[in-house]
Amino acid sequence: MGYIDKCASNPCANGGTCDDGINEFSCQCAPGWTNVTCETNIDECASGPCQNGGTCYDEVNGYTCMCPVGTNGTNCEILADACMSDPCANGSTCVNSGVDFICICAPGFEGDRCESEINECLSLPCQNGGTCTDGLDMFTCDCRFGYSGLICEIFDLCDLQGTWYNEINDKLIIVQTSTGMLLGDYMTYVEQLTGMAASTVALGYAGLNPTNPTFGFTVVRWEGQSTTSWTGQCQICDEKEVLYSTWINILSVNTCFEVREATKIGQDKWTRYMQSTAPSNSTV
């Protein structure tokens, strides 16, 4: 029986080299191929060579990495500075987190890239019907009549304190203490013209109703010969404060050792202006 060349049939595929042996052959595979007859392509992506989220594409005796934005290099091993393009808006701070970035927004801004101004009025901060105006990292409240404070939280309608005049221009100066007591001075219009000393409010009180506070006070005049007591309520008329009061006057006169008492009852309407100086458009 003659010699048989096992390589004669070219059993080695893909450029492999055949070595004939006794009753067998062996293949020396070209780079990138493997198995008995070099029929299998070696998967160079099996070892996961692409870094930082790169996608591997196998080739014969090699591979190619498709790198995500922010990386480069054969294996996507080089990280670019994601903040180099200054992606964060409105003066915000960019922090490089590898293949991506994070924006730390300046006060008053929000969004992934701090591109949006925060509307501080969306939370409806202004109370009691106040109108909110948005600003950069702030807001302002335009309060309705009778309210004040940063968010219109202070109710100051019918503040009893200050100077008041009734319809005959008697003058009343009221000071309210922290406990609700009223102090002050009282002068008739004649006393104001003649420069006489004011009569002191001997006793007064203010009610706790913030909308229409009640009040009462007593004035002792002429060394005790006359005592007048007022009770009333503060109200708002045409966005102006008005005191409506009822008074009782007790007059004692000593004549020839006789005591005569005369009692009068009346009503007063007190405003912030004397009748002669009230604004022309005033309705109070």
TrEMBL record:
The keyword Magnesium does not apply. GO terms for biological process: establishment or maintenance of epithelial cell apical/basal polarity; heterophilic cell-cell adhesion via plasma membrane cell adhesion molecules. Its main location: secreted. Residues 3-39, 41-77, 79-115, 117-153 form the EGF-like domain. It comes from the Eukaryota. The keyword Secreted applies. One of its GO terms (molecular function) is biotin binding. It comes from Strongylocentrotus purpuratus. GO terms for cellular component: extracellular region; plasma membrane; protein-containing complex. InterPro entries: Avidin (IPR005469), Avidin-like_sf (IPR036896), Avidin/str (IPR005468), EGF (IPR000742), EGF-like_Ca-bd_dom (IPR001881), EGF-like_CS (IPR013032), EGF-type_Asp/Asn_hydroxyl_site (IPR000152), EGF_Ca-bd_CS (IPR018097). Keywords: Disulfide bond, EGF-like domain, Glycoprotein, Repeat, Secreted, Signal. Disulfide bonds join 29-38, 67-76, 105-114, 143-152, 158-234. It is found in: Secreted. PROSITE patterns: ASX_HYDROXYL (PS00010), AVIDIN_2 (PS51326), EGF_1 (PS00022), EGF_2 (PS01186), EGF_3 (PS50026), EGF_CA (PS01187). This is EGF-like domain-containing protein. SMART domains: EGF, EGF_CA.
